[in-house]
Amino acid sequence: MPYVDRQNRICGFLDIEENENSGKFLRRYFILDTREDSFVWYMDNPQNLPSGSSRVGAIKLTYISKVSDATKLRPKAEFCFVMNAGMRKYFLQANDQQDLVEWVNVLNKAIKITVPKQSDSQPNSDNLSRHGECGKKQVSYRTDIVGGVPIITPTQKEKGKIQNISVLSV
To answer: Which part of the chain is the PH domain (predicted)?
Structure first.
């Protein structure tokens, strides 16, 4: 069962398949620390380990792209979920269905990228999209390569006039 510790980190025991595709799961103590951007695991709760004991493994949260239920991928491993991190899949096993759902939710929440909403103090998006730095007008364009030469074609017309087509030579 994941819980929040005194340092506001999500902690708890899970079983992890440390060697990919080995089918052998080992019990480890996990700490999800969003302030440190890390998901680390130890042999046991670090409070129970001798001082100076190092972690067994770690993953930066920015490397984790997706966390999902893996009971269909690993039917023999009950309450199993998978973490996609870079080129590797980490298979983890929770104690029960409730733990599985909670760990998947907290991990997905931790890796989610949030974009702040626009406030009233910021200029509106219409002005931002039309004018770049120094007040210059920005225009969207399409680039085609014809005979090894890039051809840039504006995709919109300015009010009342057609923009020039510019060709860049290499």
So the answer is: 7-112
